[in-house]
Structure prediction request, 75 residues.
Amino acid sequence: MDFAQFKEEFISACDFIDVPLLEENTKLEDIADFDSLAMLGVIVLLETQFNLTATGEQIMAQDSLGGLYKFAVKK
Prediction:
């Protein structure tokens, strides 16, 4: 999966009301609607698409969307 596909899956998993403009360097903490429900969606995404179990803390530690992508594909 390349970054563009990951970004689309991330957007779908988060079920944003207003889809934000996201780039590889977008900081996760700066995404307005990235709340606990969006986090749960990302946890499920990582489990189903990457067979990766991750906590909210591990996800936020990746800092950016590009960092999260690298975290997901390296496992």
In short: The domain at 3-74 is CATH 1.10.1200 (Non-ribosomal Peptide Synthetase Peptidyl Carrier Protein; Chain A). The chain has a mean pLDDT of 95. The chain has one domain: 3-74.
